[in-house]
Amino acid sequence: MAPWLKTSLVNWYVTLSVLIPYKLLPYVAVLLTTLHTVGSVPDLTEHLHRTTARILLHVNGYVDRIANSKWEVKELGVEHNGYVDLMLGEFKHYKTRLAHGGIPQDVQNLLLEYGVEIFAETLVEGLSRIKRCTDEGRALMSLDIQVLINGLQHFVPTNVKPKLQIVDTFIKAYYLPETEYVHWARGHPEYTKGQVVGLVTLVATMKGWKRKTRLEVVEKIESAAA
């Protein structure tokens, strides 16, 4: 497929997709079904499916909700953060939108998986923006993710845990010694430079790193990512 045609189709589709909840969902359902069966344009098909998921799954504001949750807790209880329930509620609505859109079940399942991936991206970005937390706060992050995994599993037919592994790995990086972060960053290109720098900045604050040490680690990470 010519690049200009692919770009035109994508732009046209995105324009239509803005109105999906109202008038055009049946037409988009036909498009999704058709593309799903056309093997000659798999890259375009995947792009359009992922675009559909991003439009129908409303995650605006969740990065800030996650970042601004209370992470400086002194004791780990049994209660998870409120943003978890809100995200599960949104995913339930997302599944309902797909079910009522005339989209084939196999395409719905694919879009549900992409939705989980979007949640994982949102969680990592939110966690990377946390300014202060305690060790108990770090444990609370893991509790939140486990509750989210258990909840999402009710909506998605496939195992959701592997798709949220990227979040678990990010949380566990809080426990690394300061000498390991540059090497860890190089081994995990799935995280953006900003996310890794946010992680290092938080750990440096929590652990009381010397300012010089923090600056040196951040500089090495930024240089490696350049």
TrEMBL record:
GO aspect biological process, one term: endocytic recycling
Keyword terms of this UniProt record: Membrane, Transmembrane, Transmembrane helix
Pfam families: Syndetin_C (PF10474)
InterPro entries in the record: Syndetin_C, VPS50
Sequence intervals crossing the membrane: 12-32
An example Gene Ontology CC term for this record: cytosol
UniProt keyword Membrane, yes or no: yes
Segments forming domain Syndetin C-terminal: 36-222
Name assigned to this protein: Syndetin C-terminal domain-containing protein
Species this protein is from: Brassica campestris (Field mustard)
